[in-house]
Amino acid sequence: MITAIVLVHTAVDRIPETAQAIADLDGVTEVYSCAGDVDLVAIVKVREHEQLAEVIAGQLSKIEGVRSTDTHIAFRSYSRADTDAAFSIGLD
Question: Which residues does the UniProt record annotate as the domain Transcription regulator AsnC/Lrp ligand binding (predicted)?
């Protein structure tokens, strides 16, 4: 699975509607509104790189209210749950 983190700049008066429209796209697993340099952060998970272009460039960037995007591809995922699971293998 390929994960992309998409930083989204939106029209300020359309943040809730834009966030929901992004969340409704196939391949988008989560959308966060946040403070800081960007308005929304979307997590996109797809099986093939070509699907990133379809979801991000083909759909997400064309949603009303989206002004610009900045996409980052994740190489690895780290979480406490993953670490705990790795160290608990065979310790029953």
Answer: 6-76
